[in-house]
Specification:
Elements (H helix, E strand, L loop, with lengths): L1 E5 L7 E4 L9 E10 L2 H8 L2 H6 L4 E2 L3 E9 L11 E4 L2 E2 L5 H4 L10 E2 L11 E5 L3 E3 L6 H4 L2 H11 L9 E4 L3 H12 L5 E5 L2 H9 L4 E4 L5 H8 L5 E6 L4 H9 L1 E9 L11 H7 L2 E4 L7 H10 L9 E6 L3 H10 L4 E5 L2
Parallel strand pairs: 11-12, 11-14, 12-13, 14-15, 15-16, 17-18
Antiparallel strand pairs: 1-2, 1-4, 3-5, 3-9, 3-18, 5-6, 6-10, 7-8
Helix pairs in contact: 5-6, 5-11, 6-7
The chain binds nicotinamide-adenine-dinucleotide (NAD) and zinc ion (ZN).
Length: about 350
């Protein structure tokens, strides 16, 4: 089958013919239809320190996808050939303390599709049946391909109660943009988004944000005054991974506020811990999605008016992967999809 492979321990990604993956008794083989490129894929392509220390080569990459079930292992129940599916990309051990307690998103032995085991940028991917998620008929294929990052947005946004709350989202990348839609859907009052990229701030505006601030020129304080927001934000969703953005967020939080941290900083990020202490802030790290409550909530919201389709700005045939990676690298995009059919 055709696949995008991290074939060598150096920068680059290569389209190659590889063996179709095996389907064990507990696995499901999926014919991939649409995939979506994640920042992680760019790290693997660039072969940065994280990638070099994490990815065994050769490795078929990619973890954001949807497709149709092609074959089902003998022990798998409830999944049939032809069903339209996506899959949770984190495969958990089932044996550690957190797994046994039902906190599978906190498994200490998580293995990632397209990171630690063969991924979905291919004609076929094999995943454990327990990770497969059925896509409802009223959710289109394109949105089916971005359920993984939407799940990151949903997991982060639902960590604190947003009903009637004022929310600041730092980072209008694809996940920050989708978090705007989720916060709006569940009843936040004011939603302020920051970034340094005007293209992305426009996408956040289209998604329903109340103020989109380019922090290189706009003042968060002025926007708060303008909105009549006197004391500070109740909830912060950090989705940039930039230390400066986290600093902006902490500065503008109300006492007693909650910050959910999804963004992955490139280095140690200085924090004035006095702000955390004296404001009585709660910080919550977020990794992946809750298994499988985030999937349940996300699909339920998509069926009841949550619309994130405008975050998808590009779709190319899989053969044009190099161009697609260039688009993602440019930052002048939301989600970029590859079609494998
Ligand atoms: P992205 O890199 O596309 O988006 C980050 C955005 O932050 C960009 O639009 C960038 O312009 C913006 N930014 C840069 N400097 C800023 C500043 N000073 N203030 C505000 N915004 C600024 O990433 P994404 O795919 O949307 O993911 C968001 C973050 O979440 C990334 O850091 C990613 O690594 C991380 N992530 C974490 C998990 C997890 O499980 N914890 C999963 C997926 C992604
Ligand atoms: Zn575990």
């Amino acid at each position: 089958m055709r696949a995008l492979v991290k074939a060598k321990a150096e920068p680059g990604i290569w389209a190659e013919d590889v063996d179709t993956p095996d389907v064990g008794p507990n696995d499901v083989l999926i014919r991939v239809h649409k995939t979506s490129i994640c920042g992680t894929d760019l790290h693997i392509e660039a072969w940065d320190d994280w990638a070099a220390s994490t990815i065994p080569v050769p490795m078929v990459i990619g973890h954001e996808f949807m497709g149709l079930v092609e074959a089902v292992g003998s022990e798998v129940e409830g999944i049939g050939v032809g069903m339209r599916v996506s899959a949770e990309g984190h495969i958990v051990c089932g044996r550690c303390r957190n797994c046994q307690a039902g906190r599978r998103h906190l498994c200490v032995h998580t293995s990632g599709i397209g990171v630690n085991r063969p991924g979905a940028f291919a004609e076929y991917v094999s995943v454990p049946g327990s990770n497969v998620q059925l896509i409802p008929d009223d959710v289109p294929d394109e949105v089916g391909a971005i359920l993984d990052p939407l799940g990151n947005a949903v997991h982060t946004a639902l960590n604190f109660d947003l009903v009637g709350e004022d929310v600041i989202i730092t980072g209008a990348g694809p996940i920050g943009i989708m978090a705007v839609a989720v916060a709006r859907h569940v009843g936040a009052r004011w939603i302020v988004v920051t970034d340094v990229n005007d293209y992305r701030l426009k996408l956040a505006e289209d998604m329903g944000a109340d103020r989109e601030l380019n922090v290189t020129v706009d003042s968060i304080r002025d926007a708060m005054t303008d909105l009549g927001l006197k004391e500070g934000f109740d909830v912060g969703l950090e989705m940039s991974g930039q230390p400066a953005a986290l600093h902006d967020m902490i500065t503008h939080m109300n006492n007693g506020g909650g910050i959910a941290l999804l963004g992955i900083p490139p280095r140690q990020a200085p924090i004035d811990w006095n702000d955390i202490v004296f404001k009585g802030l709660t910080l919550q790290g977020i990794y992946g999605r809750r298994m499988f409550e985030t999937w349940y909530k996300m699909l339920a919201m998509l069926q009841t008016g949550l619309d994130v389709s405008s975050v998808i700005t590009h779709e190319l045939p899989a053969s044009q992967y190099a161009e697609a990676f260039d688009i993602v690298r440019s930052g002048e995009c939301g989600k970029v999809l590859l079609d494998w059919t």
